[in-house]
Design goal:
single chain; 808 residues; alpha+beta; 19 helices; 38 strands; binds flavin-adenine dinucleotide
Length: 808
């Protein structure tokens, strides 16, 4: 084995080999793969090999599309035969909600260049003569779906990499990893040690074992998944080499496809089974778990009813193998929590079809410093440290059991909750709060009243809580209302050099003393990495506040850019120490004045000012900013005083008709003000200039900030697309994120968030559209659940255009 390399990939499954392949394609050929056994020894060898394009997630749709495009040309490209049957697939819809889901995904796929088709029962029958379809509303046709031999795929990827110079070391188990003081890593293996600049953890269900070598915990567990293969079926023998399309019956929860002249059936059953909770076995490579057909009996019966030829023969083989699951079933990709240049790429539940795209993303991350696509739903930093074994297990079981469930927007599933609650949790619940989890924190979504109309909680249409949200928005606009935001991420940067360092990170100007500024953190390519409010509390002392879900992501970005060249500064994560209350509405000043003796007048406490104010038995950091567009304050309160401050505001608030509001109302209110949301409207694929946030960029400021050169180039050329608000003639459904924007027959943009605005009484979509279509009044269309709805480009902001209410 070599003693030195640029990149060492740990794990020779489909994913690890794809990383190696893509690294060599990007020109990095001094790379090695370390495999403890033979290639494919983890989950890869026994996978069913199904390769759908379909996904309800925009990121995964992209990733899988890259894979299927690659697999179609791979055999020829690298000179290695692969059994890849491009049969197409049919997904069956039993319910109206499923039809809505399909319509939404069809449009997303079309925007990415993949044409799915909706089929009537007769059209399904024409493609698949053996299905019973009495209870089916329609089917979704994915022409690029099929099944691939996972072992051949893996070998082909490895060959492609080897041919360009990569080395693959089999029977080389990684036993220890340590970061070298000089930079880079030393990997100890059973075949000696190797030093490397970068490490990729592609160890599949052993990903957490490898992460533990760095002292890092990865939130993942091992479950079992099984499929059965039948004996040959006369009707399929008769068809010769013709193959049936793959069938998925998600409302029952199984996939069913042809395997040679038999059938292969794999259910996602409602009683998922976890394994190895006390640690992985030392040796387990080409073994399986014992068959457990009892667990999937009812699915076998349902599938036999759907396709009667299935029940006409016996079962030839059962495969029950280990499959890794992160809490949400998405892989864990991206930078490790410790050290530099260590990337995870493991915990794949659909690793055969995702290997291609995943390899590309990781290779770009290594070679270019960041992937071309924003992959936040797959980024391992989406999990905060609370996501321990118990949480991961509860969520993973729930995710497996819902693998095929309708993917509703805004669904809140119950497992692993409540994980983190604020001291106000019980009080808010007593007021009718219905909670959702954000970064593990329970936050009020809306406040229900017994007289409210009943209905389903989740829908692609406007759900029943629409009425409650309308009521809360009215309270915010007319009087005064309170929102609690536990887990709002907060960092303090202090010490000599603090200002210079932040100035180097943000694209805009730093706030003056006692002021706050909305600030954009860009990547070297100019993409938006993070959005934070930066407040200057004292000379060389700042608070940085960002989204709850971004805590680990932002902390990682900040710590990885800490540098002594700016001075001796300290960075502290204050998130758990402070709670946040948002007090807003035209009467918020009067109410706040009752409980603090600070001068809150416009002269003393203007918009965007930050002051420490006495309140109850403590001091709060009060900021005259908010995300809803009314007069108001963000109050950051030591968590042990939160209850007392809340009590005081509620008592004093009676005289002003104080109401409580939740996240859904906040989202509606911010849409009207066109305030962007991180990782919805603001991703690394958009720059601040594309996001129409040029007023927060100072290209000519003294500090040389990250991304400046890229933004200068973009400013000179003019961004190709820009962010605009759209006023949509919606029906009973608002535009969801990643709805497609049209101008005539042409696709001209993408919605990044949408909803109803109750103050302006309009359905709103925030979108990126072609730069020549951003003038207010231009008529466009947005596709909502299969229907093109008229949409007018609006002028930003849609509510209170001159910010008079904010400044009042
Ligand atoms: C029954 C079943 C059916 C499935 N069907 C499908 C399907 O149809 N389509 C689909 O997309 N997915 C399917 N999957 C999921 C798929 O099998 C996995 O997602 C995929 O194989 C993961 O690939 P991987 O490369 O990430 O991990 P693995 O294949 O597990 O590879 C990890 C490799 O790392 C090696 N390794 C681990 N630790 C070390 C170490 N310390 N040192 C060196 N090497 C190490 C292992 O030996 C192994 O070879 C199925 C899974 C199961 C169980």
């Amino acid at each position: 084995m070599k003693s030195q390399t640029r990149v060492a990939v740990i794990g020779g499954g489909a994913v690890g080999c794809s990383v190696l392949y893509h690294l060599t394609r990007l020109g990095w050929t001094d790379v090695v793969l370390l495999e403890r056994d033979e290639l494919t020894s983890g989950s890869t060898w026994h996978a069913a090999g199904n390769c759908p394009n379909f996904s309800t997630s925009w990121s995964i749709l992209k990733l899988q599309r890259h894979s299927t495009e690659l697999y179609a040309r791979l055999a020829q490209e690298v000179g290695y035969d692969i059994n890849y049957h491009l049969t197409g697939s049919i997904r069956l819809a039993h319910t109206a909600d499923r039809v809505d889901e399909f319509r939404h995904v069809v449009a997303q796929a079309r925007a990415q260049g993949t044409d799915f088709e909706l089929l009537s029962s007769a059209q399904i029958k024409a493609r698949h003569p053996f299905l019973e379809l009495n209870d089916i509303r329609l089917g979704l046709w994915d022409p690029g779906d099929g099944d691939i031999d996972p072992a051949q795929l893996t070998q082909a990827l490895a060959k492609g990499a080897r041919d360009l110079g990569a080395a693959v070391y089999r029977h080389t188990r990684v036993t220890a990893i340590r970061e070298l003081a000089s930079g880079g890593w030393r990997i100890e293996t059973t075949a000696g040690s190797i030093d490397t600049e970068y490490v990729i953890n592609a160890a599949g269900y052993r990903g957490a074992e490898v992460a533990a070598m760095l002292g890092e915990y990865l939130p993942m567990v091992t479950l079992s998944h099984q499929y059965l293969v039948t004996d040959d079926i006369p009707e399929l023998i008769e068809r010769g080499t013709a193959r049936l399309p793959l069938v998925r019956d998600p409302d029952v929860s199984y996939y069913l496809r042809q395997e040679r002249h038999g059938l292969l059936l794999g259910p996602y059953e409602s009683r998922a089974q976890a394994h190895w909770l006390d640690g992985l076995p030392g040796e387990f490579a080409h073994q399986l778990f014992a068959d457990d057909l009892g667990r999937i009996e009812s699915y076998i019966e349902a599938a036999c009813a759907r396709m009667p030829i299935l029940g006409s023969v016996g079962v030839k083989r059962v495969i029950n193998g280990p499959i890794p699951y992160a809490p949400d079933g998405n892989p864990l990709m991206g930078p490790a929590a410790v050290g530099r240049n260590f990337l995870h790429c493991c915990a794949f539940t659909f690793g055969i079809v995702q290997a291609g795209g995943a390899g590309r993303i990781i290779a770009e991350w290594v070679v270019n410093g960041e992937p071309d696509w924003d992959v936040w739903p797959l980024d391992c930093r989406r999990y905060l440290p609370f996501a321990n074994r118990a949480y991961s297990l509860a969520k993973a079981l729930e995710t497996y059991e819902n693998e095929y469930a309708v993917a509703y927007p805004l669904e809140e599933r119950p497992a692993g909750r409540p994980a983190k609650t604020s001291p106000l949790y019980d009080r808010l619940r007593a007021r009718g709060a219905v909670f959702g989890a954000r970064g593990g924190w329970e936050r009020a979504l809306y406040y229900a009243r017994s007289a409210d109309p009943a209905g389903t909680e989740c829908s692609f249409r406007r759900p029943h809580w629409h009425h409650a949200v309308a009521r809360e928005c009215a309270a915010v606009a007319s009087a005064v209302a309170l929102l609690e935001l536990p887990g709002f991420t907060k960092f303090e940067v202090a010490g000599a050099g603090a200002a210079a360092w932040i100035d180097h990170l943000v694209a805009g100007a730093l706030p003056r003393l006692g002021r706050t500024a909305l600030s954009y953190f860009c990547s070297p390519r100019g993409g938006i990495v993070s959005e934070m409010t930066v407040s200057q509390l004292a000379e060389e002392r700042f608070w940085l506040i960002s989204a709850a879900a971004g805590e680990r992501h932002d902390e990682h970005w900040l710590t990885s850019h800490l540098s002594h060249r700016f001075g001796r500064l300290t960075l502290a994560n204050l998130t758990p120490r402070f709670g946040t209350l948002i007090l807003v509405g035209p009467r918020s000043r009067e109410l706040l004045a009752r409980v603090t003796d600070t001068d809150l007048s416009n002269d003393a406490f203007p918009w965007l000012a930050v002051r420490t104010i006495p309140i109850a038995y403590t001091e709060a950091l009060a900021m005259r900013v908010n995300y809803v567009g009314e007069l108001g304050w963000e109050l950051h309160v030591p968590v042990e005083h939160l209850l007392a401050v809340h009590e005081l505001l509620v008592t004093a608030g009676r005289a002003f008709g104080l109401a409580h509001f939740g996240l859904y109302a906040m989202d509606s209110l911010r849409l009207e003000k066109c305030y962007r949301s991180w990782k919805a409207d603001l991703t690394t694929e958009y720059t601040p200039l594309m996001a129409s946030l040029g007023r927060f960029v100072r290209l000519d400021k003294e500090a040389d900030f990250i991304g400046r050169e890229a933004l200068r180039r973009e400013a000179a050329a003019g961004p190709k697309e820009r962010f605009v608000p759209l006023l949509v003639e919606a029906g009973d459904a608002d535009a969801a994120a990643v709805s497609i924007v049209y101008r005539g027959a042409e696709r001209v943009g993408l919605v990044t968030s949408g909803g109803y605005g109750y103050r302006v009484n309009r359905s709103i979509a925030l979108a990126y559209v072609r730069a020549d279509l951003t003038e207010p009044g231009i008529e466009l269309e947005v596709e909502i659940l299969g229907e093109r709805r008229p949409a007018l480009v609006g002028r930003e902001p849609l509510y209170d255009p001159h910010n008079l209410r904010l400044r009042s």
